[in-house]
Structures are given as C-alpha cells and as structure tokens.
Amino acid sequence: MIDTPANDTLRLGRVDSWLFSGASGPRLVAFCGLAAFVAVLSVGKIFNDGDTYWHLATGDWILRHRAIPTTDPFSYTFAGAPWQAHEWLSEVLMALVFQAGGWSGLALLFAAAIGATALIVAAYLRRWLAPGPLMLTLGFALACGAPSLLARPHLLALPILAAWVAGLITAREEGRAPSWWLLPLMLVWANLHGSFVLGLALIGPFALEALIENRPRLWAPLRDWGLFSLAALALALVTPHGVEGLIFPLKVTGMTSLPIIVEWRSADFSKLSVFEIVMLEVLFLCLWRGVQVPAVRLLLLLGLLHMALQHVRHQPTSALVAAMLLAEPLARAKNRPQEPQPQLAADRRATVVAAAALGLAVVALSAARLALPTTRVDGLNSPISALAAVPPELARQPVFNMYGFGGYLIFKGVRPYVDGRADMYGDAFIHRYSTLTRPHAAALKAELEARDVSWTILDPASPAVAVLDRLPGWRRLHADRFAVVHVRGALSPRPGGVSTSSPPNAGPKPAPTAAPQKPG
Fold first, then answer.
1. pLDDT score for 360
2. 349: part of which helix (H) or strand (E)?
C-alpha cells in the first residue's frame, strides 16, 4: 500500500479506537502509566537538587552502620547534634538502587514511582471520566508537580498517597468503611516521607461524610471509621522516632526560616506558572459546567488549595488529591452515569493483558536505560569541577558553602557548613546563614574567623563572592559558571582539620582528624 495522508489518518484512527474505545479502559490506564514513566526518563532535571546527594549518603551510612542515625554524622557545624533521619526507608532504597544501577538505576526508580502514581490515579479516574477528560485531568494534576520532579523521597511516597486516597474515596462511594488492606500502606508511608501526616488527616473528612450520611444510625460508621483511624495512627507510630516522628512534619511547617528555601515559599503569581494555569482551568470548568461539590469535600478542596498556595512544595500532592475528589462531581455535571462502572469479565481479561504489556515495556525501557549509564557533569547544586580543584588536604579544613552545595559535599565526603537539612540546623542558624550570604560583610568576616574557615565554595551569583574577592587574605582558587572557590592565603593547610565521612562508593574512610565544633 502506498503511504498517503489518508492512510496515515486511517492508522491513527485505528490506534485511537484501540486506545480510547469503551472496552479499552485497562489499555488506557496502562498507557497513562507508561507515558508518565517515559516522560520522567526523558526529563534531565530530575537530578537538579542537592538534597539527592545527602539522601544517598544517609542511606549509605545506614547500610554501613546497620543503624539509623540519631545525631548529625555529616556537617562540622552541627556534628553530634540531634537529627531525625525521618525518611530513612526512602534513603536506604535510594542507596541500594544507586549501588546496583548508579544514576541510571536511580532515574528508573523515580520514573517508576511517577508511573505507578499515574497508573493508580488513572485507574480511579476511569470509574467516572471518559478517556479525553481523564487524560486532561491526569495531565494537569501531574503537570503541577513538574517543578518538584526531583529525585527525593517525596516522589517515592506519591504512589502510596494515590492508593490511599483512592481507597478512602472508593469506600465512601460504596457506603462502607475503608478496607483494612490499606493499613500496611501507612506503615510504609510513615517511614518513607513526612507526607504520611496528610494521609492521616484525610481520614477525618471522609469519616465526617459517613457520619452525616448515616445520621439516624451513627454507631456503625463511628465504629468502623474510628477503628480504621486508630489502626492507621498506631501504624504511623511504628517508626524509629515514634511520637516524635508524628510531630516532626508539623514542627517543620512551623519554622520561620522556611521562606528562605525556594520550595517552601508561597506561590508566586507575579509570573504565569503551571499551577496558576491549572487552577484557572479548574475554576472555569467548574463554574461553566455548574459542578456541585458536597460541602465537606469542598472544605477539603479549599484546605488543599491553602496548602498549595502557602508552600509550593505542596502543589503536587494537592493537585493529585483534588483531581480524584473532583472526578465524580465533574462526571455528574456532564450527565455521565451516576454510579461508577462495574468491572466486567472481559474488562478483567483486558487488565491482565494490559498489565503484561506494560510490564514488558517497562522492562525493555529499563534495560535500555541501564545499558547507557548516566554520567554526572557540572550543574545546579553539583559543583563537580570546583570541588575537584580543591586539594584533599584543604578539603578537610572547615568550609563555608552555598546551601545547595551541601548535599554534594556530603556525598563526596566533605563536611559542609550547611546543607538541605534545615530542620536540623534550625531557624536561628538558617536566618544567620541567609544574613551572611546577602551579604553582611562584617558578619561574614566574623563568621569565617570564628569557624576558622579555610575555603569557600559558592554560587557565582552569590553577593558573598564579591565580598570575598575584596576581603584581605582571600583569593580565588577556581571559578566556573556553576561555582567559585576562594581560599584563605597560600595553599598551606594546617595539620588536622575537619574529618570527612565516606560517601557512597568513595573508598576507604579518611583518617580521623580534629574534633568537630559544637553546634552553632
């Protein structure tokens, strides 16, 4: 057959029919999961965060010591200070995958997490939405998480969030209590990431809905939802930190220094963002279609919106939960079936086939990715060339570093001044660090003297670089477009210095050196 535009249209129509026909729901769900998996593998920015490095180093430390750290083993400013490795399970998983597959393996791990999230959300949305609205809703929800698409524990918790919310909403749709098979998810979630607190909080609104709906017979829903809530809370406490682990996320959100950190800032509407576009689209659609949302769920949606506006890091989770909450009201507004569609025998067979095809595709893509190892080069929060230019003797001396470089220094066995663990350093220290880098020249000079700092590694755009250029006794050792290194005087490091810790795959641990300073 000769290829013509008509033939191309015919083939495209066949694909469209195969994917979007009424009996092809499982294929559509599998396609959504695979598309999300491939999209993450295709995005190069997943490693653009310095925290990935210290998470890997923490996981490696846990594996080597067969214990979970309770004090800081990495920095020199807070060495020995109390620290909760509250994401320890994520960090161990990351370290194991990194040891087995390097950076390519780590990319596959996080691509699989996003793919699984898309799969679970699509499977729920399919109960109410036609293929077109389903893909649009899912695409908007995932797009809100694009700025947070970074290789860190919060992504590993997203599939659990999606499954948990789907389980709670489905229980309400079917007029019953949540399945106890959901509870093991809370046990894993509480050790993966602090967002498990949101999972606990979400039980309340759905339990309230059940009580309002069954006002004449309150005992049954009160008993069923109450027992589920208590069991979930009990499992959330099964962590190395117990009650303190439950309180920890609340303490972090109350820190006054959070606005200094980009992801903890409020939403910025001075320039157009994906989140603003999605929010306006949802408002338009709901107002245009006359979407009616029950009062309790409307309050829940407003609460999620508040979270997303207060801290941009909450936008991915808020968008995913909101998409699932709005699926039924949107379907009813478009006169879709009033009840979720039952799963037929043919549908179950199609699910098995789609799952097998999805598995084979993921295995093939994973093998191809592992066959082409990822090599890290200089980039945001990865001052590879700059640190390589620092002599090993000097690297063991106290350093003043940019906040985002701390993770890479830890990964390479260098004790940083500061890193991404703002919860450990506390408000006072983070505020002081911000003052030093604005910069306050006199305060910066005093801090360098007080900490006996021998070298600095900073972003070229940092105002502190210009201060160091003018500061007597300091000179540049290295400069590139990602980092600038200053050293004090001539290259003659004092004996001793600050000991370094062994990063993943870094070889033997350096010999112990002078005792670290007390927390500042």
1. 78
2. helix 345-371
Q: What is the pLDDT of residues 60-119, one digit of tens each?
A: 999 999 999 999 999 999 999 999 899 999 999 999 999 999 999 999 999 999 999 999
* Phi-psi domain of 25 (left: phi exceeds 0; alpha: psi -120 through 50; beta: other): alpha
Q: What is the DSSP letter of 179?
A: P
What confidence tens digit (pLDDT) does each residue in 309-360 have?
A: 999 999 999 999 999 999 999 998 876 554 555 554 556 666 676 677 777 7
Asked if residue 281 lies in contact with residue 330, where contact means CB atoms within 8 angstroms, the answer is no
| DSSP calls for 359-403 | HHHHHHHHHHHHHS-----SBTTB-HHHHHTS-HHHHTS-EEE-G
**Exposed / middle / buried, residue 291 (Cβ in 10 Å: 0-12, 13-18, 19+):** middle
pLDDT at 24: 55
Per-residue pLDDT, 321? 97
Give me 430's structure tokens. 């983070």
How do the residues of the chain divide into helix, strand and coil, expressed in percent and rounded to 5? 65, 5, 30
What gap in Å lies between CA 267 and CA 275, rounded to an integer? 9
Q: Which long-range contacts (CB under 8 A, 24 or more apart) does 226-230 make?
A: 227/177, 228/177, 228/178, 228/180, 228/183, 228/203, 229/200, 229/203, 229/204
Taking residues 216-235, what's their average pLDDT?
93
Q: What is the Cα–Cα distance from 475 to 461, expressed in whole angstroms? A: 17
